[in-house]
UniProtKB/TrEMBL annotation:
<feature type="binding site">
    <location>
        <position position="249"/>
    </location>
    <ligand>
        <name>Mg(2+)</name>
    </ligand>
</feature>
<keyword id="KW-0464">Manganese</keyword>
<dbReference type="GO" id="GO:0000287">
    <property type="term" value="F:magnesium ion binding"/>
</dbReference>
<keyword id="KW-0963">Cytoplasm</keyword>
<feature type="site" description="Important for catalysis">
    <location>
        <position position="141"/>
    </location>
</feature>
<feature type="binding site">
    <location>
        <position position="96"/>
    </location>
    <ligand>
        <name>substrate</name>
    </ligand>
</feature>
<feature type="binding site">
    <location>
        <begin position="76"/>
        <end position="89"/>
    </location>
    <ligand>
        <name>NAD(+)</name>
    </ligand>
</feature>
<feature type="binding site">
    <location>
        <position position="106"/>
    </location>
    <ligand>
        <name>substrate</name>
    </ligand>
</feature>
<dbReference type="GO" id="GO:0005829">
    <property type="term" value="C:cytosol"/>
</dbReference>
<keyword id="KW-0479">Metal-binding</keyword>
<keyword id="KW-0520">NAD</keyword>
<keyword id="KW-0028">Amino-acid biosynthesis</keyword>
<comment type="pathway">
    <text>Amino-acid biosynthesis; L-leucine biosynthesis; L-leucine from 3-methyl-2-oxobutanoate: step 3/4.</text>
</comment>
<comment type="subunit">
    <text>Homodimer.</text>
</comment>
<keyword id="KW-0560">Oxidoreductase</keyword>
<keyword id="KW-0460">Magnesium</keyword>
<comment type="similarity">
    <text>Belongs to the isocitrate and isopropylmalate dehydrogenases family. LeuB type 1 subfamily.</text>
</comment>
Length: 361
């Protein structure tokens, strides 16, 4: 198959991890006789520096014309004091909105060999396997007004949703649960927020359409606690944009590192942008230390969701698993008795495993 992939490396470790994922995609293309062509475009701080805007028109156009998009990360201290419209993060929010990527799937599945890398007890983390379905183009991130008033004496952000926006993400949650362990936890703050009360209503209205899925409502504060005390109680979590952002970083602790969590940001027709959950990690950027697995596993999600390449996706996931089994890991993972290596080296090992795959089939 021939596919045109837009790469948006962005800032900080975004460049390093995207380069790793591209090498892995190339190895897969070679093994399975596909042709992946790449077009690299600017986003975030890098785009501000080069074009004076975090989301250049050319980037938007290229993404719309592509078969799928792979993004690294945006942001960094260099742009932290910029006015809101000139922040790297605005580029990321802008491309999600422009492409209509309302459904952000964030699977949190621990690799067996990393059980001990989590600061949580082995028996708590063991067998945890959950999926966060995060609403991505509405809620607190996109409501208007959002501004400083009276010269900064007061300030407002707005949490707004159309009922239809809640309905479509809730349906995604139900659909995901119905092909997994059939348990959906809807996370909200319905004891305080009007938007959450409507969210709960919508979940209850849609529930009868999925009779084999059990539904539970949970307040976000309690969910934050349960996520790290009883993670195996969860199957699919569906939640508002900002709640999903916060809970997914927290959930990464189950896997041993934020550097392990991939994600897919999808439109209704299946078009997707794939991105690690983590950010640009300015503290380790440019040093060859970043864990590329979140992005490599995001590339695997691209193959599965956008290109229907199941075997190819599994080959990547198995290769990552094998490399971890051999004890190789990057410095963010607290692995005992393993061998700590850098971004490039661990990517080399993954590629070796992929090249070996036909021999081991
Ligand atoms: P971060 O996710 O960049 O880093 C948090 C911590 O995790 C850091 O200690 C970092 O070194 C570590 N870490 C993250 N990813 C790693 C990886 N792959 N390998 C090894 N260690 C990793 O969050 P932050 O420091 O709060 O934010 C830094 C910048 O990134 C900010 O500008 C923020 O806005 C941006 N950000 C962007 C995205 C995105 O582009 N999707 C996501 C989150 C944060
Ligand atoms: C993420 C990030 C972004 C978000 C920021 C950088 C806008 O934290 O992808 O999780 O909050 O969506
Ligand atoms: Mn985040």
């Amino acid at each position: 198959m021939k596919k045109n992939i837009v790469l948006l490396p962005g800032d900080g470790i975004g460049e390093e991890v995207t380069a790793s994922a591209q090498r892995v995609l190339d190895a897969v293309a070679h093994q399975f006789n596909h042709t992946f062509t790449y077009q690299t475009e600017a986003i975030g701080g890098a785009a501000i520096d080069e074009f004076g805007t975090p989301l250049p028109e050319a980037t938007e156009k290229a993404c719309h014309a592509s078969d799928a998009v792979l993004l690294g990360a945006v942001g960094g201290p260099k742009w932290d004091e910029n006015p809101s419209h000139l922040r790297p993060e605005k580029g990321l929010l802008g491309i999600r909105k422009s492409l209509g990527l309302f459904a952000n799937l964030r699977p949190v599945q621990g690799f067996a060999e990393l059980l001990h890398a989590s600061p949580l007890k082995h028996e708590v983390v063991n067998d945890s396997d959950l999926l966060i379905v995060r609403e991505l183009t509405g809620g607190l991130y996109f409501g208007t007004p959002s501004e400083r008033r009276d010269d900064g004496a007061s300030v407002v952000d707005t949490l707004a949703y159309e009922r239809s926006e809640i309905e479509r993400i809730v349906r995604k949650g139900f659909e995901a649960a119905s092909v997994r362990r059939k348990h959906l936890t809807s996370v909200d703050k319905a004891n305080v927020l009007e938007s959450s009360k409507v969210w709960r209503e919508v979940v209850n209205e849609i529930a009868p359409e999925y009779p084999d899925v059990t539904v539970e409502h949970m307040l976000v504060d309690a969910a934050a606690m349960k996520l790290i005390t009883a993670p195996t109680d969860f199957d699919v979590i569906v939640t508002e944009n900002m709640f999903g952002d916060i809970l997914s970083d927290e959930a990464s602790v189950l896997t041993g590192s934020l550097g392990m969590l991939p994600s897919a940001s999808l439109r209704e027709d299946g078009f997707g942008l794939y991105e690690p959950v983590h950010g640009s990690a300015p503290d380790i950027a440019g040093q060859g230390l970043a864990n590329p697995f979140a992005t490599i596993l995001s590339a695997a999600m691209m193959l599965r969701y956008s290109f229907a390449m199941q075997k190819e996706a599994e080959t990547i996931e198995k290769a990552v698993d094998s490399v971890l089994k051999q004890g190789y890991h990057t410095g963010d993972l607290n692995v005992k008795n393993g061998q700590k290596v850098g971004t490039k080296e661990i990517t080399d090992y993954v590629i070796e495993m992929i090249e070996d795959h036909s021999a081991t089939e």
